[in-house]
Amino acid sequence: MKILLLGEYSNVHWTLAEGLRALGHTVTVASHGDFWKNYRRDIDLRRDTIGKKDTVSFLWRLLKALPKMRGYDVVQLINPMFVELNPPKIYPIYRYLRKHNKKVFLCACGMDYYWVKTGLEKVFRYGDFNIGDKIRQTSYSERFISDWLNGAKGELNRYIAEDCDGIISGLYEYDVCYRRAFPEKTRYIPFPINVGVLTPREPHTETDKLRFFIGVQKNREEYKGTDVMYRAMLRVQEKYPDKMEIVRVESVPYAQYCDMMNSSDVLLEQLYSYTPSMNSLLAMAKGLVLVGGGEEENYEILGETELRPIVNVLPNEEDVCDKLEYLILNRDDVHKRQQDSVTYVKRHHDHVKVAAQYIEFWKSRGNE
């Protein structure tokens, strides 16, 4: 098959492309590299600023790229906002892709109308928009509600979701959001991880302290929960200064992030999630223990009945403190979870196995 993957979140499309190519398919990835993360792509659709010079440069590259986006068996969009333009300007690009290619699919793996709507309806016990019956009040949630639930982005999202050939959800939560609206055309497929290109975790010999790693996205700490997690880390470190070390990084490119993670033992990420993200899976594949989203729904949707490598935390500082203290006092369990984490990723997220699931779903939808 000839496949175009358009847009990028957390290296999902580039990793999927590696799996598809291993199966013999021809794949082009066109994206902005997920901004400062700077993931690999074949066609660069980066737009640095909304200034006149950068805008003209971006539009010129986009217009030159459009003729290269014709004649594909499958086009997959990472999100309704798959290029850095205002929603009204994306409609004609979407229609162009629809006209000049056989099938178009939409990923459910990021912020969009259905994610905001489901979160505000308190379908989940906790998440980006609620904790129990309380709506979370953050600057990000207010903007997302304005943009996606009540704005032009939401209108574009609904249009594409209705029109496209199928929808692929990458996490349990995203599957819930889209299955409520499109049960017949939604398919859950796990995120892909290429374990073969990763540098495994390197046990550190210069200290016997347990090393905890946390990556912070500037100005998104409250939304992602890293503010709560970091406060908990500091509290536990104060209690066990001779047994714990903290590595904190902020908004670094993907390659540097991976390198800095390699000598750590534990990753803290995604306080409000039921499930591990791409970065979490990357760490698990390297042999780090994840402290984050690992609710039973995550294992159930995968059909996993044996492994439980993730240290699941509830969205509050006290629970994070308790779980970190447990790891410090139970080093044998840390070692077992590290081994189980690698097994878990290979079992469920191997990029070639995942790519085969995509091929099967793409072929099952619409006419060949």
Can you offer a commentary on this structure?
By secondary structure, the protein is of the alpha/beta class. It folds into 2 domains: 2-192 and 351-364, Rossmann fold; 195-349, Rossmann fold. The chain is built from 15 helices and 14 strands. It has helices at 12-22, 52-65, 87-100, 113-120, 139-149, 152-163, 172-181, 221-224, 226-239, 254-261, 278-286, 296-302, 317-329, 331-349, 351-364; strands spanning 2-6, 26-31, 43-44, 74-77, 103-108, 130-131, 134-135, 166-169, 186-188, 210-216, 244-250, 266-268, 289-292, 311-312. The protein has a 7-stranded parallel sheet with strand order 3-2-1-4-5-8-9. Helix 12 (296-302) links the parallel strand 13 (289-292) and strand 14. Helix 3 (87-100) packs parallel to helix 6. The radius of gyration is 21 Å and the shape is globular. The model has no long low-confidence stretch (mean pLDDT 94).
